[in-house]
Write a structure and sequence with these properties.
It contains nine helices and eight strands. With about 450 residues, it is of the alpha+beta class.
């Protein structure tokens, strides 16, 4: 089995977080999607509770298995008879019993046939293990999707702040150019005022975008359970690929989702558990056969003078079969069988309902990825064209062939193109996250 690179990175992060002391808040912590998700996993109490439920379910399997294993018990008792009964025999009083009585027993019981009680109990217990594991797995995928989405929102805020900063730089450069042209008598006072207003507006937008970025960082640190005073840096780059075969169509992804989704496996395990409970209930109407062995040693004497002499100990050993045949239990077993059967039927109906929901989710997520990919491709072209348009407008204005309004329009168009391009990258990354979650493989295969 080949261990995915992402799994190795996640495991390494887990070890570092577990062994290293708390990260100093004055040092910058670089956050990637894998590190952010793992940090959230380590600080989510719900993950610990879900894992404890899984361990408890595993212990339940051992408990159920014990019902079919031998039951061996040993006991020892000591009785001191302070007043023994007496009888008269030929006018002579005789005591019955001894002042001291020691009794040791060893009992062995091995079930031979339980009518399906042991096998049904084991089936039900193993199903509870799968239920607990899939519940933990679903919780992990949900947290992974939430954290990745918030991280990409934060990265989007960072990109928008960068775009606004570039717009501010272009506005200041344009103002400088207008000043130079005005001194040369080639620009009007109105053009200078318009350039100054553009700088003021860009400064305001830049301050607002910087504040949005600060708030996004706070939301991210709060989502993963990090100290809000911790300094962080976000690794640049939106997710652009997936471990899923996107080129094979939505139907293939639906089939994968029906096999991988934690909720689907959770319901399948529940149905199997109810089937085991039905077998346990049926066992209440069937005979039970046990192999029983009993060993006993006994010592009786008025004193302990001969305690160490083996001949004074009476020994007995016996083996036998114990058969129990239920005749009438008030129809309790039949009622329990009916309850388990209806519970299993209800889970089957839930599974059919869930299957429809999974198909719908996968199709919608796949279409969102396709739409985001096409929109991103279109936005990339618009950024390149807007950049060329701005360069041409600036050159025309510098030579007097163009107007300042053309420059302002070109700068605004480039700013909008850059912003929409960043949003398209974020939307595609989030769409890929949602698609992997809908298929049930988020955070489990490959690296992003």
């Amino acid at each position: 089995m080949i261990v995915p690179l992402r799994a190795l990175v996640t495991a390494l992060v887990l070890v570092v977080v577990a062994l290293a002391p708390a990260w100093p808040v004055d040092e910058v912590l670089m956050l990637t999607p894998a590190i952010a998700v793992q940090f959230a996993m380590d600080h989510q109490e719900s993950i610990g509770m879900a894992h404890a439920d899984a361990l408890s379910a595993q212990a339940g399997v051992r408990e159920s298995r014990a019902d079919g294993l031998p039951d061996v018990a040993a006991g020892f008792s000591y009785d001191r008879n302070w007043l023994l009964p007496t009888i008269l025999f030929n006018n002579t009083a005789a005591k019955i019993g001894s002042d001291n009585e020691l009794l040791g027993q060893v009992r062995f019981n091995q079930p031979l046939y339980t009518g399906g009680l042991v096998s049904g109990s084991l089936q039900s217990a193993r199903a509870r293990v799968v239920v607990a594991r899939e519940a933990e797995r679903q919780l992990r995928q949900t947290i992974s999707a939430q954290v990745e989405t918030i991280l990409y929102d934060c990265l989007l805020a960072k990109e928008l702040a960068r775009v606004q900063q570039l717009s501010l730089q272009r506005a200041r450069a344009n103002r400088s150019q207008v000043n130079a042209l005005r001194k040369a008598g080639r620009a009007t006072r109105f053009e200078w005022i318009r350039a100054a207003v553009q700088v003021t507006t860009a400064e305001s937008d830049s301050i607002e975008s910087a504040n949005d970025l600060a708030l996004a960082r706070i939301d991210l640190k709060d989502a993963i359970g990090m100290d809000l005073a911790q300094s962080i840096a976000i690794d640049d780059g939106f997710r652009s690929t997936s471990v899923l075969p996107l080129d094979k169509g939505a139907q293939i992804l639906v089939q994968e989702a029906l096999k991988n989704r934690p909720e689907r496996l959770h319901l399948a395990a529940l149905a199997d558990g109810h089937k085991g409970e039905e077998r346990v209930a049926r066992a209440g109407k069937r005979p039970r056969l046990d192999l029983v062995a009993l060993g006993q040693v006994q010592f009786e004497d008025d004193s302990f003078a001969q305690f160490t002499e083996g001949d004074e100990w009476r020994r007995s050993w016996s083996t036998g079969l114990a058969l129990q045949i239920p005749l009438f239990d008030g129809m309790r077993s039949g009622a329990r069988v009916a309850q388990a059967r209806q519970a299993r039927r209800r889970v089957q109906l839930q599974a059919e309902q869930l299957d429809r929901a999974i198909r719908r989710e996968v199709y919608r997520a796949w279409m969102d990825v396709d739409e985001a990919s096409q929109r991103l491709h279109a936005r990339q072209g618009s950024v390149e064209q807007s950049q060329l348009g701005l360069e041409d407008a600036v050159a025309r204005y510098r030579t007097g062939a163009g107007t300042q309004l053309e420059v302002l329009d070109a700068e605004l168009t480039l700013q909008q193109a850059d912003s929409e391009h960043a949003r398209a990258r974020r939307d595609k990354a989030v769409a890929l996250v949602e698609l992997e979650r809908s298929v049930g493989v988020l955070g489990e295969n490959g690296d992003d």
